[in-house]
Design goal:
Helix content is 63%, strand content 0%. Helix 1 crosses helix 2. It is mainly alpha-helical.
């Protein structure tokens, strides 16, 4: 029986050098243990911002 993983989907994303540096800076500034976790947090934050903006526009 296989063990369930918290993150079952994998995506490959190409980044510019500047984007990679900004992610690394975010990671170290926030003392995040892994680059993957930093990227997940940034994606989640961005998605929340977009959802909020859409809700504000539809009001």
């Amino acid at each position: 029986m296989s063990k369930k993983t918290a993150y079952p989907f994998k995506k490959l994303v190409n980044l510019t050098e500047q984007q990679a540096e900004r992610i690394a800076d975010y990671r170290f500034a926030n003392r995040i243990s892994s680059e993957n976790e930093a990227i997940r947090q940034l994606i989640e934050y961005g998605l929340r911002v977009v959802e909020t903006e859409r809700k504000d526009q539809s009001s």
